[in-house]
Structures are given as C-alpha cells and as structure tokens.
Amino acid sequence: MHYQVYDVEALLETKGANLITVDVAPGWLASVLAWVDGRRCMFGDELGLLAQLYVSFKDGDAEMFVVGTDCQWQCQCSRITSSEIYNGEVYDMTFESAPVTRGEAQSTSSRTNPQAVKVVSFDFAKLVSPNAPTVRDTEAVRPVSIFESASGKTIIDFGQNLVGWLQIFELRKPAGHVVQFRHAEVMENGELGTVLNGMKSSAGLETSKSLPRLQTSCTTRLACWGTGSTILLAEQMEPWRERVPPFVVPDVITKAHPDDDDFWPHIPNAVWDDAAVLVPWSLYLASGDKEVLEKQYESMTSWIDRGLPRGTNGLWDANIYQLGDGLDPMAPPAEPGNGRTAGAFVADTYLVRVTDVMTQACAVLGRDDDANRYRSDCQRLKQAFHDKYAAKSGLLVADTQTALSLAVVFNLLDSPDQLAVVGDTLARAVRLQQFSVSTGFAGTPIITHALTSTGHPELAYRMVLVKNCPSWMYPISMGVTTIWERWDSMLPDGSIKPGEMTSFNHYALGSVMNSLHECVGGISRLNPDGRESKSSLCRVGA
C-alpha cells in the first residue's frame, strides 16, 4: 500500500490549537471499479485512515514530536456524501457539520455528531513509499466559451482535451437545487455525444484521466480499468497465471465474477502482455538504470517461460485468440482484432522480439546462462517463423503494411536480399493504399521506421502528410488537440463512429513521433553505457 507525504508547515499555527481533518473515501478498496454488475467492496469493506504528523524545530531546541491516528481521533459525515473513482462525487452544500473538537460536539444528530473511531490492526510491512510523482496543479486554464445547447444544457468549452479539476467560484442557486457537472471529450451535433456503452462525451474537457495516480492509457481505461502498460507494476497486481497479471489491472473482472470463469476467460494475449518484457527494457534504454531490469526480472521471465501458451513449434498456440494489430482501420467497429493481419502472425513476431530482448536484458544483468538459453530460443523461434510464414525469396504469407513492417523492424529476415524484397513489397503496399495508413496498434509505431530503413523515406514522409482518412493528419484537420484511439473515432460529418467505446485521448497512434524525432530530426538517445548511438537525418531530395 502506497502512502503519501505532504509538507504542511505553512498550514500550522504557532499560536493556538491546530486541527487535522482528513476526507476518507472508498477509493480502490470499496468503490465500483468495473462496468460489470456495479459490484462494490471487491477488495474490502472497511474504510480507514493511517496518518502521522511529524513536527521538528529548526532551532533544534526541542525534539521532534509525532501526532498519529489512534483511539482519540473522531469521525463524522461531511458534505461529501459520495466520492468514487468510477461514479464521481456528490457534494451536499445543505449539510451542516458540527465542529470537530476535543470537547463535546454541538449537535445531537447521529449524522453530524462526531463519533468514536474503531482501531483496527494493520501490517505496516505493506507500506511502501510513492513510486510516481505527486498529482499537482501545473497550469490554470480558462474556458474559451460557455454556451447553452439546444437541449438547455450549459456547455463549458476549454478548447483543449485536458486533465484537471473544475474550480467553481460561485453558485447562486436555491437550497435543494442540484447542479451536475459531466466531464468528457467531444460534442456531437451540438450536444453531449453518447457512444454505445453509455459513456458521455462533451466539449473538449477531460478532467478524469489518470488523476488517481493510476497509469492508464486513456480516459475510458480509467472507467474500465483496462491497460497494457500497467503490467510493469507487477508487484502490485493480483497473481494470475504464474504471477503474470490479468487483462485489466486491478483484476476487477475476476473479483466481480469469482465463480464464473466463462464471463471473461483467462486468455493471455501478445503485444499487450508482452509489455511485461518490453516496458522494463525501454525504461532501461532510456535511463541506463539496471535496477528496473532487476526489479522486473522475475515477471519478465515468468511471462516468457510460463505465461504464454505455445504450440509444438515453440511459437504461440494458434488456437489462442489474439487482438493482433488491434484497431486496424479495416477492422469492424465491434471487432477491433479482426483486421487484415492475422493475429497469430503478429503474436509470433512479437514472441521472437521479446525473446531477443530477454537475451539482451540477461546480458546486461550478467546472467550469462539465461542469456545463452534465450539466445538459443530466439534462433529456434526465428527458424520456426520462417518455416511457417516466409519463403526463401523473402515473400511472406501476409503482405499487409503491418506484417511487412514487423518483419523488417524485428529483424526477422535472413539476408539483405530478403530485406530488399520485403522493403519493396511494403513500398508497393503503401502506394496501393494511396499513402493512407492501414495499420493498427502493432504496426503503427514501426511502419515509418520500416520504410526508412529499407530505402523508402519519401514514402514515410508522404504517409505522414496525407490528410484523407485514415491518416495522422485527418484528426488534425478535424480540429483535435489530442490523438484518438481509432483512426476515425470521429467521422467527417462530426459524428462519433458507431461501435464499441472509443477514446479521444489515446497515445498509441501518436507513436509516429518517435520516427519523426529520430529520422526527421536526427535526434536519438545515448546508449545506456553513455556512448553515443548512431544518429542520422532522413533527407529526401526535392
């Protein structure tokens, strides 16, 4: 359990008494944490507070003293009658609370009268220091417009999809009047847009994303708790499949349906679950800090050695459903994994990739025996990939933009001749699509790298600059301020794309920026050992 540290020196009165008050809410422990059944208290039903105030004196004349939570503390209800991550907050301004003092309370109401607290036991060994920056204000943003919609709703437009809290200075309404604030992302036909799962959208104001210090990939993930990136935090997650975390974190699906294995089958998935290996490695490359590899080593090896089901050839079990190149623009809205590149192909390319990464990670950590084992596995898997998917000429069974890019960037080809064949095939595929993007989450981060490394940088530039849908410039032409989850989350007529939920603040498709930094800007990171890596500009003649 993470504890928080705050500097409260400026709040202390040097003369007179000081009072410590803390608002306690259900939070992760007892809130509704998923869209399934609205079940509460998945991790516990007893709210509590553990707090200590440390006071030291600058002159050193007096010893530091500590004030901590104990049986002398009191509790009572407050104006915040409900406060949850999923369902928001209810604030009752008509509620009159009694003063909380060490003396007798002034009210006889059971709701407002301070009550004695119950002291419960707690394992202090579970406390860990914060591992992420504190949530704090960084900027104040004013609305660009406030107007009334046709249905009579007041729309506050901040002109930017952003993360923050509303600050309301004054509300002049009669007692009992209810004011509701809904935070969302876009408008549709002059009103709050509603996608099929019932989540609301509004005028470019997002005030919920990741505010509870939970790393999520987008606003909708905060609502549904699905994220691949948080697999890095394995020590905080529910053990599942040999300590490999589940599809959503925390595992609210299993908690909501503990006796129903069919509700959401426990199915490992490539790419997203491969983050167990790829994220620690990326952090190491960016920081040169070996500790992150040491800390995550067990979860990294658990995923490769025991977490994923394999076929007889060592590649993925072909019967396992894969999201593959998720949200390929040709995939049906309700079937994001049903794109043009077979999920098994994507999964197997990633398996070779993560095995190669494990080889390098073991070498960095000096685990030579493991490095040799994974190196041998990588060579065997690469041969199995060729036997299953590739001809000696370099032609692949899949000739989609994603399949060809994966083969190039993940170094799955045996010779320069094969690389040239695949590069030329990729170039033709891009031209056939008239430079529109036809990649999903697996192919988008690497397609421009693949084009550049095979001698076609002019096509990469052309893809980046084209404005028709699907493309990187299409959302910009629609006036967006953040990247969408789907290439066409909003259609040209301003309507939200039909289908299952979509996000208007999602980083995945914006991963092309890596290519722009490295290839266009010529900016690349140092090697972890401090030596400069090769840096070059991709120049295209006029």
From TrEMBL:
All copies of the Alpha-L-rhamnosidase concanavalin-like domain together span 150-194
| Domain of life according to the entry | Eukaryota
Q: What EC number(s) is this enzyme filed under?
A: 3.2.1.40
List the catalytic activities from the record.
Hydrolysis of terminal non-reducing alpha-L-rhamnose residues in alpha-L-rhamnosides
Domain annotation Alpha-L-rhamnosidase six-hairpin glycosidase: ranges: 242-520
Q: GO molecular function: any one?
A: alpha-L-rhamnosidase activity
Q: Which residue ranges does the record assign to the Bacterial alpha-L-rhamnosidase N-terminal domain?
A: 1-139
Q: What Gene Ontology biological process does one annotation of this record name? A: carbohydrate metabolic process
Coiled coil location: none
Which InterPro entries does the record cross-reference, listed alphabetically? 6-hairpin_glycosidase_sf, 6hp_glycosidase-like_sf, Alpha_rhamnosid, Bac_rhamnosid6H, Bac_rhamnosid_N, Rhamnosid_concanavalin
The protein's name is alpha-L-rhamnosidase
Q: What organism, scientifically named, is this protein from?
A: Cladophialophora carrionii CBS 160.54
